[in-house]
Design the sequence.
């Protein structure tokens, strides 16, 4: 049966009997009681987003042991994106057993099997690999997920969640901030923040579904907060041992990278490289407007030939509205399958370029030439040298276009027709620093994420800006005479 609210004081007494590596007792702090209150109230799913070094994993290890002791034939499963990561929580639990003689008489640690067994019944704690095939069919009484931000898919979380029903099981997931708000964790967080029952206290956010089946606790700074001010950062590091002095020492360490500090100490959603586009600003720029037949537009085109993506994007001259006209993406394959070579359908690309020129009045088009040179030459002959112009994306030229696009989104001057595909490409893009400035690219060269629609959107917006600049009348010489 689900945990009861009356069990929380008993769990707190149980924790006080456990010993940490230092030999001190495990004492629950107020924020830890707050983040476990939903679990002990019987809530089915609890998501906890909290910076590193605030004791998340340690508390879950204690919770797993408590659950094993008080639940008949408990089935407690620990999952993460790798067995090694899940093993960290497991090792915390075995450490408590090793340092607590009273537990050793009631529990049996089987390290080779990554299991802790109850000596009174068939109850157990066990680690499951991230491969979702090995988790199918489990019926947990308690499922624990560690470092959910590393999950590339929602597969394992979904299997754990769907297995909770038969035994009225519960689930607790913990994580630091992720690097991408369109990741499985990012989407779960966004959905939680849209719940009707949402409360804020400083930089702490609490959300709970109306049916009481889901709850989220998040400690995170917001865009614009000074994350170099330890008094501000302390707000999202509620543990008593995370003092301003301790945080400052972490912050000042030569080994601490900027993105690590923002994500792991401040709860900000940034990647290993600098964020190019602020997700909130991008989503705020979404518009219900759509292009209309006969609109004056600029075009942007970027793409690959094989196993990636190609995009044709338009930008309306009058108001800067950006909209995807056509997008081709290589299909994703299941993990472990051999990827078949996929090629962008040239005939469809030809048809899309022709349709854009027939449907709208194209005043200028910027086409990235490397992999489509012969086609671009043909389109230029057919539709005009102005409608199809080569725009070689060298670093200096493209960096200026990228920065104009970003700043105009931030200032509210660049609307975009709401399109999940375009949003995904824009938010997939990362800024990589180079000697000559920066470059927009994928997070990693091997990443399956696509960014071609983002590049095409930048090209379309730059083509519009240049077309407008050419329309400006030359200043009168009389006005220049003093």
Sequence:
């Amino acid at each position: 049966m689900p945990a009861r609210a009356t069990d929380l004081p008993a769990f707190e007494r149980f924790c006080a009997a456990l010993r940490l590596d230092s030999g001190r007792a495990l004492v629950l702090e107020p924020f830890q009681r707050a983040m476990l209150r939903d679990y002990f109230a019987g809530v089915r799913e609890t998501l906890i987003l909290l910076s590193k070094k605030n004791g998340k994993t340690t508390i879950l290890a204690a919770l797993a042991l408590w659950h094993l002791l008080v639940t008949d034939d408990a089935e407690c499963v620990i999952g993460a994106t790798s067995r090694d990561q899940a093993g960290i929580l497991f090792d915390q639990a075995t450490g408590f057993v090793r340092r607590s003689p009273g537990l050793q008489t009631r529990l049996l640690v089987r390290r080779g099997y990554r299991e802790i067994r109850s000596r009174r019944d068939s109850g157990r704690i066990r680690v499951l690999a991230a491969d979702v095939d090995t988790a199918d069919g489990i019926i947990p009484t308690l499922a624990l997920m560690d470092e959910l931000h590393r999950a590339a898919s929602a597969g394992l979380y979904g299997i754990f969640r769907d297995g909770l029903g038969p035994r009225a099981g519960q689930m607790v997931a913990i994580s630091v901030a992720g690097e991408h708000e369109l990741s499985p964790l990012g989407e779960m967080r966004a959905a939680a923040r849209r719940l009707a029952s949402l409360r804020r206290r400083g930089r702490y956010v609490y959300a709970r579904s109306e049916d009481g089946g889901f709850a989220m606790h998040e400690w995170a700074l917001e865009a614009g907060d000074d994350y170099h001010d330890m008094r501000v950062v302390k707000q999202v590091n509620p543990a008593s041992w995370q003092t301003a002095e301790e945080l400052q020492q972490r912050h000042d360490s030569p080994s601490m990278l900027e993105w690590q500090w923002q994500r792991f100490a401040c709860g900000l959603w940034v990647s290993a490289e600098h964020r190019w586009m602020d997700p909130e600003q991008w989503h705020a720029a979404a518009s219900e407007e759509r292009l209309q037949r006969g609109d004056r537009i600029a075009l942007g085109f970027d793409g690959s030939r094989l196993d990636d993506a190609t995009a044709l994007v338009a930008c309306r001259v009058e108001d800067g509205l950006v909209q995807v006209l056509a997008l081709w993406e290589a299909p994703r394959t299941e993990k472990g399958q051999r990827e078949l070579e996929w090629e962008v359908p040239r005939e469809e690309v030809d048809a899309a370029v022709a349709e854009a020129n027939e449907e709208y009045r194209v005043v200028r088009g910027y086409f990235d030439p490397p992999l489509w040179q012969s086609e671009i030459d043909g389109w230029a002959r057919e539709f005009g040298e102005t409608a199809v112009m080569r725009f070689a994306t060298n670093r200096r030229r493209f960096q200026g276009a990228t920065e104009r696009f970003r700043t105009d989104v931030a200032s509210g001057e660049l609307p975009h027709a709401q399109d999940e595909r375009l949003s995904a490409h824009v938010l997939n893009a990362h800024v990589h620093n180079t000697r000559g400035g920066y470059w927009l690219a994928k997070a990693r060269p091997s990443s399956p994420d696509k960014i071609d629609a983002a590049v095409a959107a930048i090209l379309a917006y730059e083509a519009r800006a240049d077309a407008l600049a050419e329309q400006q009348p030359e200043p009168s010489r009389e006005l220049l005479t003093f």
Observations:
- The longest helix spans residues 452-471.
